[in-house]
């Protein structure tokens, strides 16, 4: 699946658009001038522009050339003065989340609502084999209560891999958890008391909101840019104004925006944390799903005072079903370790041993190379389908990694209604209101393409588009 | 391992002692009169008395006969006016718990501190085989995020078994958790707000105390009788006096006392809960380890208003390593379900499927029959060893099920010091201060005999006794 020349040119142009070199409505270079510049044929440039047109990034205007589309990228949400309030989300909001993500595939065959990776790949076979062999020969130690901190061999493997994210961590500095959710939950519980203010980017992963509510905390939403992430300016203002107790961020391909925070911003965040003596809970779960080679740095890579609590798991990169995650609590090690103990004692041993073998044997690297290509392809495919089947004015995020798209519908379309109507057709999506304590995402939804099936799922996107059209006319 | 006649007679007498028919210091029937009464030979009665003497229940007085030993059973803790305070336990107390339970068997070969079942039995093989087969052929559904509530087949099996405990529950009324700890944690979080008062029996499972502290709750210890459990009178007084938000109890073979609450008391507790509109978190984890046939009823069996949240797991009856537990939240279903979602999403699917097969195939019943005999034997063996090797005045609980003994040392012996000294010899015990927010158990410890090994562990009990002797002389 090596990329064709025209695809590379299209992506270069898109990057320039996203970086602000070309603005909405601006004319792009002519076919001839770009062909000269890139040393390719005119037809190659034409193919590149046609691809960009199909994806909705550019518009062809009758014979005068190609222009940057007015809805090429999601509008940047301008920093606003953030409000601080006890969040109103409760059981009903939680019920929406559950309805959008917790389905039996037999009942809802098109599960675009949940960020599940592809679980059908043969590159997962070594993991199944390890699990099978380890279970058959399980000794009393692996059937018993394991060490609270987790299996040593796995901690070693994870510590080694964290170097790619710019983090120097010793195996004994990390604790294995039952998935990333448990890691975040323990971290948040460890550093807060009821009533404390938690700052996070908006829109954000809905479970963060539900944790904040369940723990009696206060939510402070900070606006985020769909390309570069949380507004540093807004965060700075908020930290000056409010006694923020902890920040929660997913800097790399986060949920739902999929943005990639520039390293420069990561450094600035560390400066802010240090200045105000605040810890950060960093969700690193999507970082290995960078569509380019390698992975971006974690914010923790720039952490000079050991105040970042990095949380992650193999749920997005490998499989969620084994529930193997980890937390690197930094200076909060003892508090987080105690929380892990209280919440569920140790995590299951056998899946940890199997995952350690998967990493040691090089199977993880092979699997990751495979899924990066696959997900990049699915991102493009699904974007094309949404462009094709959804009402004019629909805009889509441009994640450079991860498993999901954030889709802005024309303002008249209620995403909750779309979600309800879609479920009746066997299709799940995650409606915008799940991702915020405010009501500003009523016409947004998250679409997860990780397990998108090119045979059985394309018609479902068409159906979803039809439903959106229907709702736009109401 | 059918019981001999003399063993049965000894146990009948012990039961009468525990029920108060014979008091400490009282003369027991003569050999001849008891032989007549039981229609057995005098030598059989003599064997019964000798057995009781070895166990420390009776004392032979020169030729005048056998008397009930003054330390035959643990002293009943008289109901006192319970105090209510923010508990002082913190990281240091938690560290003690961790040091006493979280060990690598390579470093600490004699793990009497942790309530681990026997993990070496061949009756566990069908579980390993199921796990192995299921892992090898794992489909995308079992590798993905499963249903939040858990696997249907397992919920059906558990619901069916709950009938033995007197509970009529539908499969959809229970939620699978990652062990009993997660079940209790979710239940407690679901029904409390910071500052609320939680009532529990004393001594109690240490993790309850740590949860109370971590959640900012207030602890109210209610005295408990080592044979029948929590003092109903004291609980009644406490509920009249304090705005108790929730009670936490383990009525059957609980941790650490191992008492068995009479059904009459279970009913009385339900009456109190109904009267004061209070929920109960019932830990049912040891109930299947009744040394008699069958299992005792749960408090939930008498629950007329659906206010008991029953928590349990297979960690004591089968293996802890797979982390499969469950919660039956009654009227608090939605709140507990939300907590489970927040804490760790769903639990791993493959171990649930394997456990369902273990139950469906009758392997669970066979395993339970085996371990009941084994643990009853180990209880007696370890009691004999403690009698033999520990200082005069040491008293031991008489659990009729479960995995542990509660040992009272002569008052001068500091159990924490004993624990520290024992660890240096490769022996772990759980010192009394772990089990209370007060300081009244400084000369107690918990001894878990579930995985006691008759070959390698006997010398360790002797060593422990020597250490206790040494400390008694300080």
Automatic annotation (TrEMBL), chains A, B:
Q: Which UniProt keywords apply?
A: Aminotransferase, DNA-binding, Pyridoxal phosphate, Transcription, Transcription regulation, Transferase
SUPFAM superfamilies registered for this protein in UniProt: PLP-dependent transferases (SSF53383), Winged helix' DNA-binding domain (SSF46785)
Q: Which segment of the chain is annotated as a signal peptide?
A: none
Q: Which Pfam families match?
A: Aminotran_1_2, GntR
In terms of InterPro entries, this protein maps to:
Aminotransferase_I/II_large, HTH_trans_reg/aminotransferase, PyrdxlP-dep_Trfase, PyrdxlP-dep_Trfase_major, PyrdxlP-dep_Trfase_small, Tscrpt_reg_HTH_GntR, WH-like_DNA-bd_sf, WH_DNA-bd_sf
Give one GO molecular function term: pyridoxal phosphate binding
- The HTH gntR-type domain is annotated at 3-71
Family, according to the entry, reads as follows: In the C-terminal section; belongs to the class-I pyridoxal-phosphate-dependent aminotransferase family.
The entry's protein name is GntR family transcriptional regulator
UniProt organism field = Pelagibaculum spongiae
């Amino acid at each position: 699946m090596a990329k064709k020349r025209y695809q590379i040119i299209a992506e270069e142009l898109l990057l320039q658009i996203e970086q602000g070199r070309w603005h909405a409505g601006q004319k792009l270079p002519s076919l001839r001038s770009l062909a000269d510049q890139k040393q390719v044929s005119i037809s190659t440039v034409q193919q590149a522009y046609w691809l960009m047109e199909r994806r909705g990034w550019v518009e062809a205007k009758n014979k005068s050339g190609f222009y940057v589309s007015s809805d090429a990228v999601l509008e940047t949400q301008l920093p606003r003065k953030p409000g601080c309030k006890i969040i109103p989300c409760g059981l009903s909001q939680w019920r929406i989340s559950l309805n959008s993500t917790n389905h039996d595939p037999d009942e809802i065959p098109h599960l675009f609502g949940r960020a599940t990776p592809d679980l059908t790949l043969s590159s997962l076979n070594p993991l199944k084999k390890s699990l099978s062999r380890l279970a058959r020969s399980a000794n009393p130690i692996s059937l018993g209560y394991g060490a609270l901190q987790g299996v040593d061999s796995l901690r070693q493997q994870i510590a080694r891999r964290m170097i790619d994210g710019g983090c120097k961590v010793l195996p004994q500095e990390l604790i294995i958890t039952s998935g990333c959710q448990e890691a975040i939950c323990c971290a948040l519980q460890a550093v807060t008391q009821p009533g404390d203010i938690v700052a996070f980017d908006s829109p954000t992963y809905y479970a963060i909101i539900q944790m904040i509510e369940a723990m009696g905390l206060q939510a402070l939403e900070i606006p985020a840019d769909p390309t570069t992430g949380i507004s540093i300016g807004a965060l700075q203002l908020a930290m000056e104004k409010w006694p923020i107790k902890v920040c929660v961020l997913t800097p790399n391909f986060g949920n739902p925006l999929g943005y990639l925070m520039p390293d420069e911003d990561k450094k600035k965040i560390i400066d802010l944390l240090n200045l105000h003596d605040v810890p950060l809970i960093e969700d690193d779960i999507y970082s290995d799903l960078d569509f380019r080679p390698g992975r971006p740095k974690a914010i923790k890579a720039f952490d000079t005072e050991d105040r970042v609590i990095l949380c992650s798991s193999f749920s997005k990169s490998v499989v969620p079903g084994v529930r193997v995650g980890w937390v690197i609590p930094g200076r909060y090690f003892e508090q987080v370790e105690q929380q892990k103990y209280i919440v569920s004692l140790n995590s299951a041993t056998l899946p940890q041993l199997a995952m350690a073998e998967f990493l040691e044997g090089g199977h993880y690297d092979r699997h990751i190379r495979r899924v990066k290509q696959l997900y990049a392809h699915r991102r493009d495919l699904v974007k094309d389908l949404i462009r094709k089947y959804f009402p004019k004015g629909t805009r889509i995020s441009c994640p450079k990694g991860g498993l999901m798209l954030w889709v802005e519908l024309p303002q008249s379309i209620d995403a909750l209604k779309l979600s309800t109507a879609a479920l009746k057709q066997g299709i799940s999506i995650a409606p915008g209101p799940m991702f915020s304590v405010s009501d500003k995402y009523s016409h947004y939804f998250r679409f997860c393409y990780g397990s998108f099936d090119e045979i059985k799922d394309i018609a479902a996107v068409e159906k979803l588009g039809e439903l959106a059209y229907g709702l736009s006319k109401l």
